[in-house]
Amino acid sequence: MPAYADSPEESPVLHVRVRFAETDQMGIAHHAVYPVWMEAGRVQWLRSHGLSYRSIEESGVSLAVSGLEIRYRRAARFDDLIAVHTHLRVARSRLLRFDYVLVRAGDDGPLATGTSVHVPTDPRGRAVRLPETWLAPIAALIEPAA
After folding, report:
1. Whole domain around residue 96: which residue ranges?
2. Is residue 110 a part of any domain in this protein?
């Protein structure tokens, strides 16, 4: 079974099983794996909306992380099944912002919440405007915060 098993393609929620290698001696997921799970959630979110991060990259635009914030609330442990809920909150020509809620299966509260901010860049790493061919379909998917 793959460590990162995508939920069905149409679902924006990514399910991640905590691997042993992602934990410390106490079996608790290391704080450094949460950004990796958030990135996988973001790629799944794009895919579920008919967009491909690979295609964005192939068009000469990368979405460089310019800000990352994570609030840890509870510990994730080895073999826990985590649902990564991803929401697009801001989409402008020079900035995208995603929010995340990570929940363990069977829990009623989040393990962690987070935000990532992205700046479109060219192949040399310089900030550019996100082309309208990408901005329009992405901006149409903005979800206002609850």
Report:
1. 14-139
2. yes
Token pair of 64 as six digits = 């460089």
Please give the pLDDT value at position 4: 41
- Residue pair 125/83 in contact (Cβ under 8 Å)? The answer is no
Overall pTM > 0.85: yes
pLDDT digits (tens, 9 = 90+) for 78-132: 999 999 999 999 999 999 999 999 999 888 899 999 999 999 999 999 999 999 9
Q: Is residue 113 part of a domain?
A: yes
CATH number of the CATH domain containing 116: 3.10.129.10
24 is catalytic: yes
Q: Please tell me which residue in 6, 24, 80, 107 is annotated as part of the active site.
A: 24
